[in-house]
Inverse folding.
């Protein structure tokens, strides 16, 4: 009996060692199969990551170029829109002096005709400026710091607080930009 038990234990030991050997063999074949595929997979993953990086870089550069196009287009449009601004700014004092000269009351008929002709010339000049987007800023009733520049305060009971009482110099806008604020006298609070 002892021999039979010894044989059985030897047989079970042999069977377990055979099973373990087969398992180890299967694992090593799987590992070697994985190892042989691994460098290719690694290379594929590396190439895919490079492709994704290049795509991302391409999209960033493309977006930057589109933004640059938009910015340059806007700058060009603004440059065209306000191209006359410096010329108009230099012309405004001439217009102011011309308007002041028209306030003189001539005594002779000839002087009145000259004054009438000068008013027509000023109207023609203002129409040309109007066609190019220049408008006169109205003094309005209430003081607006975006359009008016207060140079004096008035204490007039006929006007409410923060109301423009007098226009001292005309202001002008070019399209939607103030090129010279209206100089005004404002009533105290």
């Amino acid at each position: 009996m002892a021999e039979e038990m010894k044989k059985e234990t030897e047989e079970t030991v042999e069977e377990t060692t055979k099973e373990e050997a087969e398992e180890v063999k299967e694992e090593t074949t799987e590992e070697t199969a994985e190892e042989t595929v691994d460098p290719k997979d690694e290379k594929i993953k590396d190439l895919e990551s490079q492709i994704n990086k290049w795509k991302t870089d391409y999209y960033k550069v493309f977006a930057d170029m589109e933004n640059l196009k938009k910015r340059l287009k806007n700058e060009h449009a603004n440059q065209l829109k306000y191209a006359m601004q410096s010329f108009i700014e230099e012309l405004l004092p001439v217009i102011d002096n011309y308007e002041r000269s028209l306030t003189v009351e001539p005594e002779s008929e000839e002087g009145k005709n000259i004054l009438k002709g000068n008013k027509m010339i000023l109207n023609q000049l203002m129409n040309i400026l109007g066609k190019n987007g220049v408008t006169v800023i109205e003094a309005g009733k209430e003081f607006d710091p975006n359009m008016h520049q207060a140079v004096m305060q008035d204490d007039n009971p006929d006007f409410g607080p923060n109301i423009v009482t007098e226009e001292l110099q005309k202001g002008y806008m070019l399209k939607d930009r103030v090129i010279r604020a209206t100089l005004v006298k404002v009533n105290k609070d």
